[in-house]
Design goal:
Among the domains are: 72 residues, no CATH class; 241 residues, Catalase core domain (Catalase HpII,  Chain A, domain 1); 141 residues, Class I glutamine amidotransferase (GATase) domain (Rossmann fold, 3-Layer(aba) Sandwich). Helix 14 links the parallel strand 11 and strand 12. Strands 1, 2, 3, 4, 5, 6, 7, 8, 9 and 10 form a ten-stranded antiparallel β-sheet that branches. A six-stranded parallel β-sheet has the order 15-12-11-16-17-18, with helices on both faces. The chain is α/β, with parallel strands linked by helices. The protein binds CIS-heme D hydroxychlorin gamma-spirolactone 17R, 18S.
Amino acid sequence: MLAERSLPGTHPREGAPRMATKKKATTTGKARGTASAAPEELGNGGELHQLAGGDSPVMTTAHGAPVQDDNNSLRAGDRGPTLMADHAFREKIFHFDHERIPERVVHARGYGAHGVFECTESLADVTRASVFAEAGKQTETFVRFSTVAGNLGSFDLARDVRGFATKFYTDEGNWDLVGNNIPVFFIQDAVKFPDLVHSVKEEPDRGFPQAGSAHDTFWDFVSLMPEATHMTLWTMSDRAIPRSFRMMEGFGVHTFRFVNDAGESSFVKFHWKPVLGMQSVVWNEAVKINGADPDFHRRDLFDAITAGDFPQWELGVQVFDDAFADEFDFDVLDATKLIPEELVPIRTVGTMTLNRVVDNVFAEIEQVAFMTQNVPPGIDFSNDPLLQGRNFSYLDTQLKRLGSTNFSQLPVNAPRCPVAHFQRDGHMQTSTQPGRAAYEPNSFTGDDRGPREAGSDGHVPFPAPVEGETRRIRAESFRDHYSQGRQFWLSQTPVEQDHIVAAYVFELGKCEVPAIRERMVANLRNVDESLAGRVADGLGMPLPAASTPAAPVVETEVSPALSILANAKETFEGRKLGLLVGDGANAAAVKRLTKAVEKAGGVVEVIAAKVGGATLSDGATLEAKQAVAGAPSVLYDAVAILAGPDGGSGLADEPAARDFLTDAFTHYKVIGLGGETDALVAATGLDGKLDDACLPVGTAAETTAYVDRLAGPRHWDRSVTA
Ligand code: HDE
């Protein structure tokens, strides 16, 4: 036993050139640390120079002292107690014990990347924001996508809103556009935000369920708050189960203000449109993806960017004036309402490209601090009460999470333009703040001047007139809670409506208290009778009496822009084919298919019975990325199975291969079949059921037809229910 222990002196790193990377002491003749020694002569001038762990043969403490042995703590005698004198060990454990910081109270689970925004059309006529000053102007960005309800360690495909927060490092300070992938919100007044969040998070007396709204407290709250109904239609739609961050829209949600050089203001709403188009998964698929790959969305983003397949979004603005705001049926300050694109067209003003993954997830994605109140000159707030409340919240939350008022100095948060202020000191001050005088006005600048005059260069708040009594009140103009929910419902394709009904039935079916289900269905009757009837039917309950709306429901024009499927792009670009290959599969067919999919902008992932790969007809081994047992078809947008000549070389006997095909079929996917797949098809019970979207792949013509079909939608006509 004793002999197996690594004792001092027998450590594998012993003998390594311990000082190899350490700089030689300076030989300037000046004593280290004396007042006259220039910092640059003494090393790195005070900047922390952190090497990657493996980049140095010698490890050091956090204070730079070389560590003799990082694998054995200091003890008295071979088997004796560990000594307090082991300061390197104590420092290591101390640091480890403090590694965690509080996760975000909402949007805890997220993933991000760096990018660049390029303005494609000057907006100088309506805003003096430098980011929109001229076509071609580029601004560095950082984006964090997130789910809302789940904890940091939850899964990516929760049915949930997605955060879409963008930090623009503009030359006049950071602009944080902290949006979601849904253009409206649950509540009208920020004072209800803690209640909303408490209702959707785990129930406090039991600690579950997490990362999901399918439970009593959420539906209890929203059914008692009819203003939330519109947003529930969105969260029950396919928007809440996106295929990829790269394939979802983003919205600033609130009405903001633009202010131009002349001080004139217009209202603005911000929209991100994915260049790849929108795609979602189906619910049964989402449930399975969460088990098969809880990191599905973050992996997807990481893989795409590292492969050089940079995701892009177009930024669009809806700009409108007070006259439109006054005429519009709804209050533009009410965040439970949107402005249909058909009423105010979206003007595309730039493109954002995410082109760099982070170097360190904690330093960047976890420590990035978004704040709605970060706006540069030219962008201002409206009186939306939700936005006004957010402007208080985001500063507080950063102090709680990041622990110091100096969080703006963290590299991911630091503005790329110079900062000049007299905020001083505080925990973790990393800036060696220059100057003798830390107050304004002062005459140490050399000028004998008084207080700086207010200039027109800074952020000038738009001088909106304010009047009225101080009261706690919800404006009359905020009382219509159903009309836009109805518009959303009526703007969906029948397939999307089916999904919304199924989602309400699923979620309300998880509520144990029948009165909650009834109250929600009673509200849905104000949205649409057929919707309410179908949900009640799905729940197996009688249709309750409709609740009384606070304001009459207004019939509005259908808005085709609200549908995902009606706006689907005909492309397989950015998507992934799962290619299950059996031993003996035709080598030429595999090659042809792979080439054709890649030419169409897609990615092919090879799957085999064993991860070692499959032996093709030409005797070559095709390396597999995954074994089929670990790569269910839910991880792919479409699948193809290329079997060998002998009935799939055992694929039919492999339960995971059978599931691969059955699930792909159930999820309406386009399926390619090549080689002898009859045995596999028979084993899944699908013989005689294969339809138009189950295509042969083998010959060149078949491959072309199959790859063309991949660009189209799922085969929604398939008679399955997923
Ligand atoms: Fe947030 N929200 N929020 N929110 N929110 C936070 O800030 C808050 C709202 C959104 O990736 C918190 O840094 C209030 C709407 C995103 O880091 C917190 C209200 C929209 C993110 C907070 C809202 C959002 C947050 C938690 C009601 C869409 C993640 C951690 C008025 C337009 C940003 C943090 C990231 C995060 C408060 C409502 C988007 C507590 C009080 C509406 C994308 O400050």
